[in-house]
TrEMBL record:
Ranges that cross the membrane: 71-90
Signal sequence annotation: none
Function in brief: Part of the energy-coupling factor (ECF) transporter complex CbiMNOQ involved in cobalt import.
One Pfam family cited in the UniProt record for this chain: CbiN
Biological processes, Gene Ontology terms: cobalamin biosynthetic process
Source species of the chain: Streptomyces aurantiacus
Biased segments, Gly residues type: 117-136
Protein name as annotated: Cobalt transport protein CbiN
UniProt biased composition (Basic and acidic residues): 98-108
Gene name tied to this protein: cbiN
This protein's pathway: Cofactor biosynthesis; adenosylcobalamin biosynthesis
Molecular function per GO: cobalt ion transmembrane transporter activity
Keyword annotations of the record: Cell membrane, Cobalamin biosynthesis, Cobalt, Cobalt transport, Ion transport, Membrane, Transmembrane, Transmembrane helix, Transport
Subcellular location: Cell membrane
Length: 136
């Protein structure tokens, strides 16, 4: 097993443990709703500290139910993950393209035929064309 595979296995185990252990030990069972979000937790804490507190802002859109709110949050997370995946994929593709291009130059192959401009040189597609300077 390679070093990267071992690291991936350990990370996978840690993530699974973080998901399962709170459920196995019953953490949050004393609460009415154990899986409330941080917004609700903060609102409850503020109300306990300062009962007369008035919020500075109100939400622009209040979903009609908790299920719709959860669905919108999941959609937002999925869109964010898609944007990040696109960005990292684009970066990786560009880096691989640069590495391939530099490997070609190092091997003495020059640019690929499409980038050679059809000058008839060593990397060109036509043997008889050539440039004006090459025909003299």
């Amino acid at each position: 097993m390679s070093r990267n595979a071992k690291i991936n296995a350990v990370l996978l185990f840690v993530v699974a443990a973080l998901a399962v252990l709170p459920l196995a030990f019953g953490l949050g069972d004393h609460k009415k709703e154990p899986f409330t979000g941080s917004d609700t937790e903060a609102q409850t804490a503020i109300t306990e500290i300062e009962p007369d507190y008035e919020p500075w802002f109100s939400p622009l859109y209040e979903p009609p139910s908790g299920e719709i709110e959860s669905a919108l949050f999941a959609l937002q997370a999925a869109l964010g993950a898609g944007v990040l995946a696109y960005y990292f994929g684009l970066r990786r593709g560009r880096r691989q393209g640069e590495l391939r291009g530099s490997a070609r130059r190092d091997d003495g192959q020059g640019p690929p035929p499409a980038a050679a401009g059809g000058t008839g040189g060593a990397g060109g597609t036509s043997g008889a064309g050539g440039s004006a300077a090459g025909q003299a």
